[in-house]
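Researcher: For the annotation table, I need structure tokens for Acyl-CoA thioesterase. Please keep the output clean. Sequence:
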Amino acid sequence: MKKSSTKTRVRYSETDQMGVVYHGNYAQFFELGRTEWLRSLGVTYKDMETSGIMLPVISLNCNFIKSALYDDILTIHTFLRKKPMVKIEFDYEILNQNDELICTGNSVLAFMNMNTLKPARCPDYLLKSLGF
């Protein structure tokens, strides 16, 4: 299992009038986690797109446990639990600065050839970075 962690501070624009993070922003927190997970392997979305691969999200789930609030410092833990093939699946845990679990989630992305818009296998350089 490959894990990455990144921190972010909740911005005012991410909250409602009560100072609670709007539920739609969790997808962006998950994206931040995925982006930094890839970066920890020495790969970026830009690198993948330059090589002709894109990663559209095909499934997204979020389980809300506790509210995140304005100015909270969130830690986004991103996990890869199985070898990517044509799809890559991530699990997430978001905790606040008090180590309280805020939410859990899951997303599935598909490797797509940018020219043909057809599914593609996980690039060899990513598999190699993961030790497969």
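Researcher: And a one-line annotation?
Model: Strands lie at 2-9, 53-54, 57-64, 73-80, 87-95, 101-110, 112-113.
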